[in-house]
Specification:
Distance between the termini: 33 Å
Strand order of the largest sheet: 1-2-5-4-3-6-11-8-12-10
CATH class of the largest domain: Alpha Beta
Shape: globular
Radius of gyration: 20 Å
Helix content: 40-55%
Strand content: 15-25%
CATH architecture of the largest domain: Alpha-Beta Complex
Structural class: alpha/beta
Length: about 325
């Protein structure tokens, strides 16, 4: 079955016949792009969730030509192993895929309470969904984030576990002032209903950071954020991501995103742009000292270089630099 949604940019390929849309409490969106094998592993982990909550899964295929992810996922839905939808987001890009999944959730499942998000290179534990929901209820949080634990391709890569590009921003469960990633996330329906559309700014479509911007804007609207350390997902890290060049580019990108998100946050401030630039210069100036401290603490030159690259990325953003890593997903 192929059905076109109202937006025109999304096609529904199949809907598991047993889904009762009006009783679904949780919707899990899984964007995918050219990772069919791992996508199946991701979906199998979602099928094994231990919860009494009714949940559905939306697989968002973002490769609209070969659709290898959709082809791999469809049998799981057609056999009734999973409840939910497989859709194609025809507009390419990270943000476009997330937007398609979230909008489809609102259109197809009218009464869901929580939307959860994970990527197609992640594996959830059997208690992941239930633990995230309980954290939202315990902390009365509108949005809950959780750790993405790296699973490296080779044991020798374990030394990168503590690197800032792989380590989670928090260690303890509780209310937090900021979240940064959609790789392991719960969003209350009320957040989606109040946030502007598109949810993720397409300016970040091939760079990444649209999730960080969305979460910053949500916090600015007064939505309550929390962190749940007990609900990790395990993220596969291919060997190319521990190479110095990839880590350098990701660190620079994090600096660029930091500047762009802060600029949007201060858009209504008359001196906002000047303050953001001054902060970027200050962070770059201080970065060698911060790097020296990290080197003394960890003995890792890669970890020590991180604040330098982030500071440089913040300043380069003022000059129009944008590292769009998602333009070449095979190298990301």
């Amino acid at each position: 079955m192929t059905t076109r949604l109202e937006s025109g940019s999304v096609s529904i390929l199949t809907s598991a016949p047993e889904v009762a849309a009006d009783v679904v409490e949780c919707v899990v969106t899984v964007p995918t792009f050219k990772r069919p094998r791992h996508l199946v592993e991701t979906l199998e982990s979602l099928a094994a969730q231990e919860t009494d909550r009714s949940y559905a899964i939306i697989v968002v295929e973002n490769e609209a030509v070969k659709r290898e992810g959709a082809a791999a996922a469809l049998p799981l839905f057609e056999r009734g192993e999973l409840a939910g939808l497989v859709i194609v987001a025809h507009e390419r890009g990270n943000c476009a895929a997330y937007n398609a999944g979230w909008q489809t959730a609102l259109e197809v499942f009218p009464d869901f309470k929580y939307l959860l998000v994970m990527d197609d290179d992640e594996i959830a534990s059997p208690i992941w969904l239930e633990t995230m929901c309980k954290a939202a209820e315990s902390f009365r949080a509108d949005i809950v984030g959780g750790p993405q634990i790296p699973v490296f391709a080779h044991p020798s890569h374990e030394r990168f576990r503590s690197h800032p590009v792989f380590s989670p921003p928090y260690e303890e469960t509780g209310r937090v002032s900021a979240l940064y990633s959609s790789g392991n996330l719960l969003i209350g329906r009320q957040v989606l209903e109040r946030m502007d559309r598109p949810f993720l700014d397409l300016a970040f479509n091939f760079m990444g950071g649209g999730d960080s911007d969305f979460l910053s804007r949500a916090a600015g609207k007064g939505f309550r954020l929390a962190w749940c350390a007990e609900a990790p997902v395990h993220e596969t890290v291919p060997a190319r991501r521990v190479k110095a060049d990839w880590i350098r580019k990701r660190s620079l990108r994090n600096g660029v995103i930091s500047t762009l998100v802060e600029k949007k946050k201060r858009a209504g401030d008359r001196l906002g742009r000047i303050r953001v630039f001054a902060k970027s210069l200050a962070l770059l100036a201080l970065s060698p000292l911060r790097g020296a401290y990290r080197l003394a603490a960890t003995g890792s030159f890669s970890v020590a270089a991180y604040p330098v690259y982030v500071g440089l990325g913040r300043v380069l953003a003022e000059l129009g630099y944008a590292n769009e890593q998602y333009r070449e997903p095979d190298k990301n």
